[in-house]
């Protein structure tokens, strides 16, 4: 396989140029200090519980772009597929905090956990800012919930966290709501072909022409099963069974459903997937109250998709539908 062609400039400048592009696309809603890896809202409401999100670049729009009213107050970006540095996390916390503490929401990856924890300690020690953390850990391909990766379901966590932090009186209240969302989100992904590292153009993993991989990580980590390509309905049924049995989801549940494009799949494919998922959910008596067919969490040009089920109650549904505005996503 040859190197993947990308429309970039110097690979060393990718993250900075992405952040500059987002600031310009926001028409004044976002700002960034020269050379900073932190993107923040221009007008954060005084006295609110702050929300900081972040992670490695290369998954756009997650996490970097989901900054705006009703979403995050600041995001911090690492290099491609790499955790943000602790000093940048510290900078993001200081930029977002409005005196009520800061909630940190990001994916359950060892490097991110280490660096965000260090950044939070700096904020506590140097600036007396209290922080709480809720990790995205929705990937059912990992059997142990303590080590589960955060993948596509992170979008729903960010949306809930943004709405919760906008309305909560305390950091503890916002944290409790986001933890409730965390407990009810499950995701599984499948790859048809690999994405690549922009610095090298080399694929992050190899698949045969007729192979797919179920349960892959967002950086090319090994999945749970590699097999021959299946027709869409068979593939979706296999993935559906793994997700629905994990919580488990039951007849009478209300869910939000996301069919997430990992980077290079077509809307055509996503709609075919959605058709089968809805049939399977209806057979189980599970009601879909909202559908997101999107590219919210990508891995460069990985071809494939992830399915996310988010079990709702009245509180979570209201927060999910609350108004929000960012460059890639607006609600209400």
Describe this structure in words.
It is a single chain. With 332 residues, this protein is an alpha/beta fold. It has two domains: 13-183 and 321-331, Dihydroxyacetone kinase, domain 1 (Rossmann fold, 3-Layer(aba) Sandwich), CATH 3.40.50; 185-318, Dihydroxyacetone kinase, domain 2 (Hypothetical Protein Tm841, Chain: A,domain 3, 2-Layer Sandwich), CATH 3.30.1180. Helix content is 32%, strand content 24%. The protein contains eight helices and 14 strands.
Task: Please provide a brief summary of the model.
The chain is of the alpha/beta class and 332 residues long.
How would you describe this structure in keywords?
single chain; 332 residues; alpha/beta; Rossmann fold; Hypothetical Protein Tm841, Chain: A,domain 3; six-stranded mixed sheet; 8 helices; globular
CATH topology of the largest domain: Rossmann fold
Summarize model confidence as the mean pLDDT.
96
Summed up, the domain count is 2
Q: Treating each run of at least 4 consecutive H or I residues as one helix, how many helices?
A: 8
- Strand content is 15-25%
Cα-to-Cα separation, first versus last residue? 44 Å
Q: Please identify the oligomeric state.
A: single chain
Portion of residues in helices?
25-40%
Number of beta strands: 14
* Low-pLDDT regions: none
Shape: globular
């Amino acid at each position: 396989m040859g190197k993947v062609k990308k429309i970039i400039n110097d690979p060393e400048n990718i993250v900075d140029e992405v952040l500059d592009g987002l600031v310009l696309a926001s028409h004044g809603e976002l700002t960034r200090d020269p050379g900073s890896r932190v993107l923040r809202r221009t007008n954060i409401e005084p006295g609110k519980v702050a929300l900081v999100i972040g992670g490695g670049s290369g998954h756009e729009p997650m996490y970097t772009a989901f900054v705006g009213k009703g979403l995050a107050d600041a995001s911090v970006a690492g290099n491609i597929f790499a955790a943000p540095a602790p000093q940048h996390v510290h900078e993001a916390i200081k930029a977002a905090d409005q005196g009520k503490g800061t909630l940190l929401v990001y994916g359950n990856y060892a490097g991110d956990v280490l660096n965000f924890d260090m950044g939070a300690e700096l904020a506590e020690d140097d600036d007396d800012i209290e922080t709480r953390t809720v990790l995205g850990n929705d990937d059912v391909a990992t059997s142990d919930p303590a080590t589960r990766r955060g993948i596509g379901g992170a979008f729903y966590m960010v949306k809930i966290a943004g709405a919760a932090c906008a309305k909560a009186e305390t950091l503890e209240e916002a944290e409790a709501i986001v933890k409730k969302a965390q407990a009810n989100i499950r995701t599984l992904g499948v790859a048809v072909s690999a994405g690549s590292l922009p610095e090298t153009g080399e694929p992050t993993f190899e698949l045969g022409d007729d192979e797919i991989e179920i349960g892959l990580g967002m950086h090319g980590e090994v999945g749970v099963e590699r097999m021959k390509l299946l027709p869409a309905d068979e593939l979706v049924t296999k993935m559906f069974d793994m997700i629905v049995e994990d919580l488990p989801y039951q007849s009478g549940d209300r869910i939000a459903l996301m069919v997430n494009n990992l980077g290079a799949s077509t809307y055509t494919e996503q709609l075919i997937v959605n058709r089968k998922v809805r049939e399977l959910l209806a057979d189980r008596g599970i009601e879909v109250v909202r559908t997101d067919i999107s590219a919210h969490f990508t891995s460069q040009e990985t071809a494939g998709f992830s399915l996310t089920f988010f079990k709702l109650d009245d509180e979570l549904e209201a927060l999910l539908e609350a108004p929000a505005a960012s460059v890639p996503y607006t609600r209400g």
